[in-house]
Amino acid sequence: MNRKFADVFFKHLVSIVALFSVLALGAILLFVFTQGSMPFFTSTYSNIRLVAQRIDEITVNDTTYFYHNTFIDIPKNTEIISIQFPNIFIDYIDDGDDVIEVVEIIDEALEIRINYNEKDPRKMLTFIHNNEVNFTYPESYVHTATWPHAVSAMEKRIHIILPEPPYNFFGFLSGRDWRPDRDKVFGIFPMIVGTLMASFGAILLGVPIALLCALFMAEFLKPKYASVVRAGVELLAGIPSVVYGFFGLMVVVPFVRNTFNIPSGNTLLSAIIVLALMILPTVITIAETSLRAVPLSVREASLSLGASKMQTSWKVVLPHANSGVIAGVILGISRAVGETMAVILVAGNSPHLSFNPLSSVRTLTSTIAMEMGYASGRHSEMLFSIGVTLFSIILILNTIILWYRKRMEQEL
Questions:
Q1: Measured between alpha carbons, how far is 260 from 130 in angstroms, rounded to an integer?
Q2: Under CATH, what is the fold of the domain 185-411?
């Protein structure tokens, strides 16, 4: 009775844990995809906002705000914004005997006319004022009005923040410029190219070495020695990626710089070499396990027909283990595409399009890691969009590989 109760209890416990795990994973994916799709369907804000800097009392469209340190929201479709606030000017007059301080209070007035039909954010606003005001355009969709002062730290400012319209999806994928700070330009095509070149370069370099190593361990090396090598490979799999990156920075980068006589060794080639080293343990472990799982009868049948040990291993054992080998390659591709820290240290992180292996590149994961800490608004949403793009790339690559594996199994 107790055993039956325990079986039922653990059955329901496992079911509940599995259900919550699936729900948690679904919630995470839903959150990421929602955040990543928002920039292409919605504006950053629904209306224009103002930020008053060093202004204790300000009246906006007949509404007075005292010591307002947050955004002042302007109702939608407002065509005129009327702003007034007292501005204190202090002057000093020397009458010969003493210096007299003169305090003058002037009511500043600023009127902002909004043209919603204008698509260029630089031309959307027209300013009318009653005193000396300097207008700047520190970044796209932001205008700043500054009232001059003898001390720059005392200058009063009003920032007018315009809502950014939905971003063009095809411009995001095919754009070649990434300037999120000022111009609000988000083009990730160079990063997609850099990610694919680094990943496929690592696969082309690392997978053949990994397969030969796995084949040697499974078919030619004595079990006693194979266990020692296997332990070393598993140890390499547990090394953190930042250690690989540091190794690449101290060894691979100087090697590339000195070998090719270039100013900097932080290049695509350095990233390929480091990623190839990182995927070796994963591919070797899974491939060797798959090779050892091939029945002994298959080997004996090949050898009895007169095939050599090498012919049997290469043309019989390896094709029979292709399912596990391809699984290892899939995991290797996923790690190469999703690697972050090591690539940041050795790739150079230049967001410019280049197909030269001796030039600096930036990957999608590097962009997310370097900029998520300070990103906000549309910039932050675009980083989520990069995450969705990265997920889609991995999904497409895995689908192609699985389709190819299924086709190979049908041919066999």
A1: 64
A2: MetI-like fold (1.10.3720)
